[in-house]
Amino acid sequence: MQLTEQLAQYVLSGFSTGAIYALIGFGFAIIYNSTSIINFAQGEFVMLGGMLNYFFLTTLKLPLIVAIVLAIIFATASGVLFERLAIRPLKAPTPLSLVIITIGGSILIRGLAMLIWGKDTHSIPSFSGSEPINLAGATILPQHLWIFGITLLVIGINKLFFNYTITGKAMRACACSRKAASLVGIDVKRMVLFSFAISSAMGSMAGIIIAPLTMTAYDVGIMLGLKGFCAAIIGGMSSGFGTVLGGLLLGILESLGAGLISSGYKDAIAFIILLLILFVRPQGLFKKTETERV
Amino acid sequence: MKREIVKFLLFAISVMVAPLIFKGGYLLNVLVFVGIHTMLAVGLNLLLGFAGQISLGQAAFFGLGAYLSGILTTTYSVNPWLAMALAALTVGILAFFIGFPILKLKGHYLAMATLGLGIITYIVFNEAVDLTGGPSGLSGIPNISLGTFVFDSDGKNYYLIWFFTLVTILLSLNLAHSRVGRALRAIHDSEVAARVMGINARLLKVQIFALSAFISTIAGSLYAHTMTFVSPASFGFNFSIELVTMVIIGGLGSIYGSFLGAAILTLLPEVLRAFQDFDIIVYGLILILITMFMPGGLIRGVPTGLTFLLSWLKRSRSANA
Question: Model pTM?
Fold first, then answer.
């Protein structure tokens, strides 16, 4: 393959993994913006999406659409359950205890998935066949198109939700200032619940659309969650295009690194990027520096 | 102060006597690991419990100690003591320099950065096959010896490791009850207020980070010489979480608590051996439950619980009288 064709291939595959990271990063950003919590368990909801879809599709032999909808519903339900049982009862939420509890939650969910479905990797058929398509000398699969399309759709719906609906605006109000929001009559606790529900729904959607490409297993959540977090950080934890760009940037850089440098160190590249961003510009590439009151 | 010395002497004596009571066999082997885990947990407690800096990558330093010692003593035939000293110094200095940018971060950003560091190290262990043997690990690491006395059995390794662990505990207790310890706790409470009082928070955080790394590296070297075999699997994200769990269960900021946490989490898998894969769920549950209901850890929760229970019993008895 020519170098330009290789580059085109890396960039295109990077785009699709980047779209997934962007979706997962959105989940982090939504919860963070309404609650200042980083939900370390986010990756597990991605895993649940893929695993549940596999379960409904292959074990219960349901049609694809039904399986997808059910998988999202169940994953969202677990997200809500997690918020209710582990986050809400917390009386003194120091950053350390929140980190520990969400890590504990992620371990728990991962362990339960391992017990229910075992440690095997499972594959799911692509949504519309696996006939490769040629594009500028590179090949992409139909599943990649699904990933782009669904990511754009989900992000578009999110934009509309947060900007044009009362509930969406209420959630943004909570992100600005919880006290002020509750003073104007917003039920902050319910907004927190919604944010967990939305982000677990989005996360599970991400898991469902990537599963046909990368196979799914009980432990895919860790890496995906961390990289989604990386995308969110690059984008400055914004619920908008910042995270999308962050995800795409991460995906492309990771893909280029894996292709041009070494594929074994692919994950290391993503984390080196994360460390660099955290060291140099922790507020993300697209945000102005924030000041904090002491 | 005298109470502390008495407590420590009692603890040290019980440690020294234990192998004579639990005669040999498998339990002794487990107690060796309790020693290593205690050393790691105490090191992490200095960073996590006293200074309040979240570190999810402690296993990386442990692994670096193990691999550096292992590689130096096998490929380059360096004396094990020299290798251990070299490894500890190198990693300590490295941690010192990495500490400066990393410890500018706070809260979950710091957690993620240390997590990233841990994972990068783990990937390097796996991928640098020529140096580390990759996923199959590094074997043939010699036992440590003191002159002609070779530490090649569980009994001998027990005393070797617990000697280092007791020294670590003694040093940490000393640190905790000193000006430095109080400064660390001040930083934990409010870094800004500590700075206003004249504490060089930035330098102190980095120093304690480097110290914690130093201790973990020594623990890693000892681990390598005890096991004579190391593989990347023992130094991943899961082990970092296990260490954090040990510190939290025992109680943040309590040195003896770290021993308790280490002991419980080392013995628990043995108890749960029948339910092989359940242990990961149990860790998650323990983390959640302890953080929700006993944030001070067992070392504070159990006495509080007992006091509460006793007073409740007293009240119900006087009500019935």
Answer: 0.87
